[in-house]
Each structure stands twice: as structure tokens, then as C-alpha cells.
Fold these 2 entries.
Entry 1:
Amino acid sequence: MSESWQDSTRVSSVSIADRLETVKSLKEDALELYEIAKDKATGEHYLHYAYLHRNFAAVGPEAGQEEIFHQLMPLASDDVLGIMFSDAAYEYPGHWSKPFLRNGPDGDYVWFDPSYADQEAENEAIGRDIEEQLRLFKQAGELSQEEVRKLLERLDRHDKE
């Protein structure tokens, strides 16, 4: 049996072209495509999303050139059944919350984890809280060694939560 793409950090487009087959087309129009696809070698299912991108930011002959990008999100059996028979939502980006393969200009696919956005928001909230605690500390005007120690302890407790 072939290696699962989920065990690889980088997957060649040749491997995907050779092994991926459509199980069910979900939506297709001039700009995007959704389908449930299966890796013929492992039996694993993926939600395949492809979209057309026009590069209007480029200068010169590449301006307005069309590119098609592909993304493959692994699906569990329940996910496959839910999409096929229960009209479960599958649209990108709203329902793509777990790591998925996406291709790039070099032709290979790499894993992308969309949860970084949640982590980024959490880190920003922590930063705002620290900033507020520092503002209050400065406003109080008590800069003794004991007060600095208390501030650092509060910040340390917050970091461990």
C-alpha cells in the first residue's frame, strides 16, 4: 500500500494527478469547483476545492494571467457521508478549519493549518491584556521593587492560564 499524503510534509502534483479520482462532483462553475475525491492508493477521501485566480497585480505579460489553485482537505467517513447525503456545509474558507493540502507555484502541495488565525487572535488578546496591566502599573506611579515583583507575578500567572 502507498504512503498516505497525510504522512508527508510535501506531496508532488504528479502523485496527486496519478492517485486522485473524483467520487462525486458537488459544485462547478466558471470560477470554482468542489468535489469529493479519493486517493486510489490508500482509499482516503478528500474534499477537493479548485479556484481560478487572475493575477491583476502583476506587471507585464503576466498581468491578468489565469492560474488555477487546488486544495485538498482530508475527510473522515462521516464527513463524506454528511456532505453527500445530508447537505453538510463544505465551502471554503468557512468550513475548512483543519489542516489541508494546497498547491503553489512550484507545483507541489504543502500542508496549511488554518488554526494559526485563532492562535494569532489569542496572542493579540494576551498582548492587549499585558499592555493594559503595564499602563495601570505606570499610572499608579509606584515603581518599587516589590510592586515590580507583583506585576511580574501577575503577568506570569496570566501566562500559565
Entry 2:
Amino acid sequence: MNAVKFVETGTIDYYWPMGYSLLLSVPIKMGFGNLFYLKLMNVAMSSGTVVFCYLISIRFIFNKKLRLVSVFFLIFYPEFIFYNSLLWNETAFIFFLSLLVYLYLEQKYFYSSVVFALSLFIKPVLIFFPLVLIIFDKSGRNKVKLFFTLYAAVIVIHLPWSFYLYTKTNHLHLVSSNGSTNLFIGNNKFATGHYDEEGLKNLTQFPSQDLTKNVLDFWFNQYQDIPLLVSKKIAYLIFPMPSPWVPSVGIGTNLNSALPRYIEKKELAKLLVIYPNDSILFNENYEMNTVLGVYQLRKGTDDFTKSTIADKLLYAGMFQYDLSTGFEIFSNFSFWLNIFLIAAFLIRIVLFGLKRNLIFFIPLYFILFYSIFFGDFRFFLPAMPFVIIGNFVSRRTFQI
């Protein structure tokens, strides 16, 4: 984990956005590095999200009973509950996004600018969000002043980190150095609309080793492929798979893991062929049981390591999770609930018209942004609180 590396060595991997890693490093540094406490921090941020979303809903849902129903959905929405148990940055980012929107609506522009700048350290996806606020702000505020305030906060807060990245990479980066890689993965002749590294694996087939140049070449010379590719990205973005939680880091900690306690010699040999760079991972966590003649998972292996191993065994095709439990029902329920919420939201846009309403345009912003990169429901998750609220607004909201 990047957070553990930062606590132990004082260095951090600048390939990924480092905001969530820094948040995790605080309890770890204080001696609360147990997975339980880190997940508890996620729960606290998720609870804060519910509070801020309720305060936001007051401005858009005038019926008190409907407001309470929307809060009920926010509290018990299965995806939020699930992501609380993962050490991914979605929970923290959704918290910062809801706080940002609340502060903006309360006209606390200085604080909202600071929160905006900090949120970019977790996910830089909001970098163009001030344009949405300015275009769809109907209050008559000084839009030019607001625009420059937001980006001035970004410059002041991010300048030291951007300078550090420049000294390490010799390129200008706002948050991390993986932007061109993600752009290339979603925009090349091998792109599928989802996360797919085929382009990177076949880089020799491209005219340049510069990923950004390859993207521009794709846009200008294979533009006829872009509409279909964008439609695939959007489909992956807003329509989750029926069992979206299984192939993801964290499964070992959520299913109590069907991770095999024993693997045979030939299976370990197969793993070392498939994952030659992970020999230490397997050799340190599986030991030979001389009585049974198989490799046995070591006692005391932490949850995160179990999850990592579980992922690799799953993708290697060495076993499948047994989902013939209530978890499968929960997963499928979440899938159909997402379909219902998003479909209802889109129908409301058609019925009410695409009005200048912030609640409607936040989800559309995420769709537009990731249609440039690649789609995954995980990336659309931060928009779901506003999809939920948007499903309970009345037509009168758009007449204000």
C-alpha cells in the first residue's frame, strides 16, 4: 500500500494520486493501522457524505417525506456500503465532492475552493468542474471572480507538489504521472471502452513511444471509430455488471474469502509462470505442509495480502468464488437497483428537459469526462448521490 510505504520510508508513489494514501497514513502513523480502523475511517466519511447530501437535498426536494426517502437510499445504498470495506479512494472522494457542493450552495466560496483543490489530490476528475458551476449557476454571482478563486486555490495548493513531480519526471503534472497512460488505454486501436492494457502491450505497433502523440494520432486518423468507442465507454460507465464486486481487490476481506488455504506444487508453479514478478508474494505467504504435501497459507497473513492473492488466483483461473449465499442475492439486487435509479434519472431528464440544474449536470459531467478516458461503474459512483437526489426532485425545482 502506498500509505504504508509513505509511513515507513517517507516516500510516496507519484504515479497514482496520493490524496487517499496520505489520509490513510494518518491513522497508520498514530498506531491505528489495523484494517478495522482504516475501514472505520471510511465509514465516518461515508456518514459525513449522507449528512451533506441531506443538506443539499433541502434545496432541491421540497417535500420532507421525499427528502427522508432519499436519505434512506443514501444510507442503505449497497454500493456505498460495499466500498466502505475497500481501501479505495471512492469513499473519500465522494465525501469531498458532497462537501464541495454543499459549501458552494452555501456561498462559502473560500472554503469550497480549498476543498476543490484538495479533492483533486484524491481524484483529479473534477479539474473542469468549475466550468459546470459557472455555466449552470443561476444566482447572478460574479462568475469571473468565482472561476479565478477556484483555480487560484488549485495553483497555490498544488504548486509545491507539481514542482516536486517535475523534478522527478521532467514533465508538468498536476497530481500524478499516469494521465497520459490512462488516456492512451482508452484511445487506441486496441481500446475496448473498458480498462484494457492491450495497447500498452503492443506499443511497438504504434508510430511513437509517446503515449500522448499516439492518442492524438488516433483521434485525427481513426476518428470514424470514436463514436462507437465512446458509446462503449458510457455503457461500461453507467451499467454495472450483474456481480460487480467479485473481481476486485477487497474480496478476501468481504467474502471471508474463498481463498484456498492449500494449493498444490503444480499450481504454485503455474502461478509463478503467470506472475513472475510476484514470487516473493507467494513464497512468503504459502509454506510447504510436509504432512499433506501441499502449500499452506501462512497463519497471520493480513487481509490486504489475502485479497491481493485472491485476485491473482481468481484471474489465473485456479478457482471461483462460491456465491451461492446471500451475498449473491445482495450483489444482484445492487445491480438491478443501479439500473432502476439511473434509468429513472434519465427519464426525469427527458420529462423535465435539460434545465440548468446542478443536480442533473453533476452526473452528466462524470459521463462526459470519462467518455474521454474509459468506462467503469466505479468511476460513476461519485455521481450516484446526486442521481438518488435527482430522482426525488419535483418539476417546481426547475422553475426556481
